């Protein structure tokens, strides 16, 4: 049942910003590479591509490039579809869920994991996902086909995954509309001070410094980046427009949940995410400029 009160502007974005990290914790945790190594996948990039694409089945590199957007296709093709000769999507999905379980228990503690607040967060987040739509959202739609785990903390993690991929798929549509390719999207997000750090990009996305500099030059030609690599006024406006367009495309789940539900989910998610961050869930070197 949705709320009758109007959803405040950017309430959905604010909620996403604290729900999404709950999903993302496992990407930076030692539990995931340990689980993946047991399946025969020891490379960190291969592990990421396998985990995040497994819901779509044993797809090829083109599908992963299309849905991940800002990764170098050459890096993806180095690992996909080879990973599917080592293991199966079903095994990867099971390993990912085990890693999420262990990661969350370590970061939050059993008391928080088994608390009434966690069960409430799961219920609210799952209700929000009822407002998601699958059209033109391949990563969301693939994950929406997966069963909801029984344990509340994993049900919440699953819902956070759906909300993350729903917004992410919509964001890619906004990037296409803004005519930003993968490296250009990374450069502008980094220049905004809100994206992944330069070191983080170089370590994970497969682009070279020459690729980065070429993207910067293209953005300068468009008047979006200045000589020092900072966003111009037009560049700042472009990033604002991107987020507003993404908000509009991602309004469904939060409008369905309603203002009171969104406010409560944001409150609960803030508590769990803050605890996880204070426990060292995310390496500082990966974020900022």
From TrEMBL:
One matching Pfam family: HTH_67
Domain of life: Bacteria
Record InterPro entries: HTH_67
Protein's name according to its UniProt entry: SalK
Species for this entry: Streptomyces lydicus
């Amino acid at each position: 049942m949705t709320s009758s009160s109007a959803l405040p502007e950017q309430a959905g974005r604010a909620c996403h910003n604290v729900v999404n990290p709950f999903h993302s914790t496992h990407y930076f945790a030692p539990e995931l590479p340990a689980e993946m190594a047991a399946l025969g996948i020891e490379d960190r990039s291969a592990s990421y591509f396998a985990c995040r694409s497994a819901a779509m089945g044993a797809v090829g590199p083109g599908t992963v490039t299309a849905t991940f957007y800002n990764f170098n296709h050459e890096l993806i093709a180095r690992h996909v579809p080879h990973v599917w000769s080592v293991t199966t999507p079903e095994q990867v999905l099971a390993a990912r869920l085990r890693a999420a379980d262990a990661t969350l228990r370590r970061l939050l503690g059993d008391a928080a994991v088994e608390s009434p607040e966690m069960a409430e967060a799961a219920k609210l987040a799952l209700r929000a996902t009822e407002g998601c739509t699958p059209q033109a959202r391949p990563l969301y739609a693939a994950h929406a086909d997966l069963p909801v785990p029984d344990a509340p903390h994993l049900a919440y993690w699953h819902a956070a995954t759906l909300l993350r991929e729903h917004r992410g798929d919509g964001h890619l549509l906004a990037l296409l509309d803004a005519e930003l390719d993968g490296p250009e999207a990374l450069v502008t997000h980094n220049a905004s001070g809100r994206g992944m750090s330069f070191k983080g990009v170089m370590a994970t996305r497969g682009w070279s410094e020459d690729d980065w500099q070429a993207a910067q030059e293209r953005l300068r030609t468009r008047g979006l980046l200045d000589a020092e690599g900072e966003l111009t006024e037009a560049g700042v406006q472009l990033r604002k427009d991107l987020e507003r367009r993404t908000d509009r495309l991602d309004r469904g789940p939060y409008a369905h949940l309603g203002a009171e539900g969104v406010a409560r989910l944001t409150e609960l998610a803030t508590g769990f995410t803050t605890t996880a961050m204070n426990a060292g869930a995310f390496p500082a070197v990966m974020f900022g400029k």
